[in-house]
Amino acid sequence: MRIISLLKGKCPQCEKKDIFKSNGNLLKLQIPEMNNTCKNCNFKFEKEPGFFFGAMFVSYAVTAAEFIAVFIVSHFILGLSLLTSFFMVIIIAIILSGYNFRLSRSIWIYLFAKPKVKA
Questions:
Q1: What is the mean pLDDT of residues 58-82?
Q2: What is the pTM of this model?
Q3: How many C-beta neighbours within 10 Å does residue 111 have?
Q4: 100, 88, 90, 20: which is closest to 60 by C-alpha?
């Protein structure tokens, strides 16, 4: 299923190999490292220089949705103070930053990739 492959960061064409070499390390301030091509089907992930500029807008939308969800849950459902809810949003943003980076790039790649038709 393509959505599961997208969430796992698999190649959009063959859905077998990973898009990213590493997940990065938040404690060492390392961003996730991408493969240039798929090791299975040789699909090129970066189509042209600056291809992932659009992934920043996807990342913004994903992060904004997470912020809103965390704020609503913490402030309105759990009844935490406004300041505590704000700090929870900041903590969640830091924790999910590596995942959001990988997810936004995967979404951007999937938007422009045509999957192989399975016979």
A1: 94
A2: 0.81
A3: 12
A4: 100
